[in-house]
Design goal:
The protein is mainly alpha-helical and 58 residues long. The protein contains two helices and no strands. GO terms for molecular function: RNA-directed DNA polymerase activity.
């Protein structure tokens, strides 16, 4: 039996697959995903990218 963390990761990946492939129709959820679309054809295998935020401490 898999650990709880592993089962949750599998469920999360299944949910992400359904959102990306239109099985779950939610444009609001798609807005949270950042797709990596290269300007030219590369060998890069990145599908998503993360945004880095700079937190200003005052």
């Amino acid at each position: 039996m898999n650990s709880l963390a592993t089962r949750r990761n599998i469920i999360d990946l299944k949910f992400l697959y359904k959102v990306v492939n239109g099985i779950i129709n939610s444009s609001e959820l798609l807005n949270f995903l950042n797709f990596y679309v290269p300007q030219c054809q590369t060998r890069s295998t990145y599908t998503f990218y993360t945004q880095h935020y700079i937190e200003l401490i005052i």
